[in-house]
Amino acid sequence: MPSVLLATFKPFNKIAVDGIEKICKDNGLTFGKIEGYKTQEELYSAAESAEACIVRSDKLDEEFFNRAKNLKIVVRAGAGVDTIDLDAASKHQVVVENTPGQNANAVAEMVFALLIAMKRNHFDATSGREIRGSTLGLYGCGNVSRAMIEVSKGFAMKCYSYDPFLSDEQIKECGAEPLHDLKELFKCDIVSLHVPATPQTINSINEDLMSLMPENGVLVDAARSEVIDEDSVISIFQKRPDLGYISDVGFTKIDELREKIGAAQLKKQLIVTPKKMGAQTLESNVNAGLTAIKQISAYFKDGSTIHQVNGKAF
Ligand code: 3PG
């Protein structure tokens, strides 16, 4: 009986965990879990006997693959695989898959909730602004941006997207107007980043771009922290007290920013979620978690490797 380990430092909702366990039982797989672990060592030793792993943004480094000697497949219950050493996985002939789109709606809903919270001054009894009719610029036009476009229809927004990997036709089919220059995107009232951390995107969002934003523009990063240059946020906020930044990826220099612009202005201009919260819903835990275990089950049944991300040939 192949053994499956659910390894999540940021645990799934119990309903999702129970669902994964049930699918294991129904498909002749043994189930184990390690949740909320504190050290990599705990993860390494839990994975030593596993043949399959389900993870979130857990760090699977070379040491993990060296130690997990029986491992055949890892499924990232989510989209981003930047926390997984794909070369090490391939070297050990471990298939790595993700579950694209399964948590996209959760991220989109969160972005709109935070946008409204910022525009309404956190509902502090003062008069705020509405987002209806705003222009929305989406960097990347993948699953999360598509969910954003769906939600934006209720707010009568006009959507634009810059995605160098898609054709104009593909972007139009998603319901957005294609743009061919990132600078153009920053003319939108709201710019939301939905790109992975790659050599092209890392530190790509800087002061030059942010300075192009219209009055009261808001930038949102619900993707990856590496994409934003935090020093640029600190610098532009001192010149442009009208701008806002919403981050679901932390803000490491928050003390420096507070010192530069003051606590009251910080509250006005910045929202940072306590942890990466975009995919933290029951629904997305169930969607991504159950999809992951179904992919594992199919792999052990018939060798299916749908959504493999580390190349077929080892
Ligand atoms: C993803 O890449 O799927 C999202 O960033 C969510 O990540 P998480 O499962 O670690 O919250």
Automatic annotation (TrEMBL):
GO terms for molecular function: NAD binding; oxidoreductase activity, acting on the CH-OH group of donors, NAD or NADP as acceptor. The keyword Oxidoreductase applies. Belongs to the D-isomer specific 2-hydroxyacid dehydrogenase family. Pfam families: 2-Hacid_dh, 2-Hacid_dh_C. It comes from the Eukaryota. Residues 25-310 form the D-isomer specific 2-hydroxyacid dehydrogenase catalytic domain. InterPro entries: D-isomer_2_OHA_DH_cat_dom, D-isomer_DH_NAD-bd, NAD(P)-bd_dom_sf. This is D-3-phosphoglycerate dehydrogenase, putative. The keyword Plastid does not apply. Keywords: Oxidoreductase. Residues 118-250 form the D-isomer specific 2-hydroxyacid dehydrogenase NAD-binding domain.
